[in-house]
Amino acid sequence: MTVLELDPGLVRRARQMAARAADPVIALARAHTTVAVERAALRLAGITGADTTYRSGDVPWVNRVVDTVREHCGLQHGVAVPAFHALAEHDLASLTELAEATAAGQVRFTVPTGRARTRAARAARTAIARGLRQVDRARTRRDKLIARWGDPPQRPWIYLIVATGDIDEDVVQAANAARAGADIIAVIRSTGQSLLDYVPEGATHHGFAGTYATQENFRIMRAAMDEVSKEVGRYIRVTNYASGLCMPEMAVLAGLERLDMMLNDSMYGILFRDINPIRTFVDQRFSRQVHARAGIIINTGEDNYLTTADAVEAAHTVTVSQLLNERFAHEAGLADGQLGLGHAFEINPELPESFRLELAHALLARSLFPDAPLKWMPPTKHMTGDVFRGYLLDGFFNLAGVLTGQSILLVGMMTEAVVTPFLSDRDLALANVRYVLNAAGKLAEDFTPEPDGFIAKRAQQVLSEAVDLLERIVDDGLLDAIADGTFGLMRRPAEGGKGHDGVVEKAEDYCNPAVDLLEEGATR
Amino acid sequence: MTMTLDGDRPDVTPAARENRRRYVRPYGDTTGDGMVQVSFTLPIPHGPHAEGAAQQLAAKMGLDPALVVHSHPIGTDFTFFVVYGSVTHLVDLDEVHVVEREYPLLTPGEINAAVKKALRRKLVVVGACIGTDAHTVGIDAILNIKGFAGEKGLEYYRELKVVNLGAQVSVPELVKRARADKADAVLVSQVVTQRDAHILNTREMAAAFREAMGERRPLLVAGGPRFDPRMADELGVDRVFGRGTTPGEVASYLVHALTTQRKALV
Lengths: 524, 266
Description:
The structure holds two protein chains of two kinds.
Chain A (H helix, E strand, L loop, with lengths): L7 H24 E3 H10 L5 E2 L7 E2 H13 L6 H10 L5 H9 L10 H36 L7 E6 L4 H13 L4 E4 L27 H18 L4 E5 L5 H10 L4 E3 L4 H6 L3 H18 L2 E3 L3 H6 L6 H17 L7 E2 L1 E3 L9 H15 L6 E3 L9 H17 L4 E3 L12 H18 L13 H23 L1 H6 L19 E3 L7 H8 L4
Parallel strand pairs in A: 4-5, 4-12, 5-6, 6-7, 7-8, 8-9, 10-11, 11-12
Antiparallel strand pairs in A: 1-13, 2-3
Helix pairs in contact in A: 1-11, 1-13, 1-17, 2-3, 2-6, 2-9, 3-5, 4-6, 7-8, 9-11, 13-17, 14-15, 14-17, 15-16
Chain B lengths: L13 H9 E2 L10 E8 L5 H13 L2 E12 L3 E10 L3 E2 L15 H12 L3 E7 L7 H7 L16 E5 L6 H10 L4 E5 L7 H17 L5 E5 L8 H4 L3 E3 L5 H15 L5
Parallel strand pairs in B: 6-7, 6-8, 8-9, 9-10
Antiparallel strand pairs in B: 1-5, 2-4, 3-4
Helix pairs in contact in B: 3-8, 5-6
GO molecular function (chain A): catalytic activity; cobalamin binding
Organism (chain A): Longimycelium tulufanense
Pfam family, one (chain A): Lys-AminoMut_A
């Protein structure tokens, strides 16, 4: 694999600065919980279903319970102890029964002390551990299926998006895509799902420009892709989104239903969805702990920076975000092999030497994170509707991908920004990828940039700029840097944004067996 | 004296010249050859029968002669075609009518510059979903930096100050916030249309602003998939945006409306 000789001192400095920028935020994340983290814990404990009698649409039972516990005794102690105490007190068989009784106004939640507390905590731990063992079994099963059917024969793995709004149509499109060569299927979520503070229930058939992420939809897609994996003789991976206000719950559902990759960025929700920064960091830490446990590869969202800012001027912000994402991920227990750090081919094609600049940026990421399954994202900003030119640009994107040893290649569509891709658009896009892989798949072997050449110098320059920016962030504090609009031009104050009221500072006696089990790596 | 660039000959009468300008055909490599290229997919297996089917479709599309230059299977059930051919249709330029947008589409840079020049401060936009409508899809697509259809939302514009109040905002609350934030424009999104809720809610909002602020009310803009842009007067708002509206269109409209039409107020 081609890597650049980066200044080792500068690389070390970059990681040190990222750690120093991230550490106060990690401390903050450890000191707080959120409604979504608490809901995720109860989902692990086995709560499912929704209250279908509610007048303005279905409310998941888990929301009903967590909201009521919060009303009665606050969330600073965690939801586990009050919920399992009530379960024992009312002699109920399951959390779903507890939820029904809660909805009927029959339950008064309290925080017990002494032996009652010990009993409730133990019961909660037993139930949550059962959920985590299901996550563990899903991981073992994935390993087994990969051993049976195999990984894709080539790198990069080919990642393709489907988004019809109807899970049944998604299955048809995904199966066709896999037969045509896709290794990873991502189902885009319905527009704005990230801002829902609950996870919808059941199989869904009406989304806006995407399909709702639900536990049942996850199950349907995974089961369908298991069938297709058998047929095509390689394990087809399934991807969804652990982002937005329900990030921790999405991670849990993905773990339970054996999804393989999840979009999960440390700052995307803050910057691009105006979600409260503290909410995001707390939710992100828990979701990453779950992903670590579930063997899920996360995909980070650095490509988004380049859609708002200039891809040359802002190249270093991508590197900074990658370093921060890496730090947060390591702290949460993710291994390098689970870090699908993102970057994108978004330099204006009119710019002289644009392709060489792309190679420099892509090689920088490859050299800085040699063991991470980097995710290489296609051009979107400079796709104009001229589909012929777009097809050529995607060809160059694919070439840059193989030349710089990228790991996951999101297939570019020539109809980007024109229409949702036609069946034929996907087919042509895959033909483009196949041609480049076939013609030049091993070109990286012959490609070594001049040590003092254009590419090496540009990479070094971007890295220095990244270190400079990280130093400024360390001085200001990451939260203040975010508030000041350092990333993606957006100013996001720590007390602003959506979901802020769902953040709770933990009390001394806070108890969440899910966090304990994840941090201990325990199964019981 | 009119200059012509198409090699006018003295034997061509003015009327003939007029005709030549009025009717045109696609240009492949010779004037008047009518050559076009189309590609499409048919849901049938690849083979001679499929090519015949493509030929028939091309003929019905007005391609004569049509040449199926390429076909290949997509899976077992579909076939992709590339067809070249001469279209039998003429374009009558006199019959071309373009619906003019009442405002020019500007880039984010142009919008920022226009706001800066005209207002010398940020343009304040307050957005909300009013009534019981909890679907923030529309307002978020327009306001969130994430945006819609490849365009960044209004938050992305440096010279716009965006206050997104989110869902289920009551009309009195919206009026209060619009006044407190000195809103130049108020954007409301309505997705739910049961029993014409979107129309009733929007009228109520417009009336409330008229009553509370009279002529000094902010620019009122309503949007949603079931709105007809011609309904603005009926609803009492300044502009209505329908399905598929992009943030850039809204931003361009705001700048146009606030810097030209309502100069007296700003």
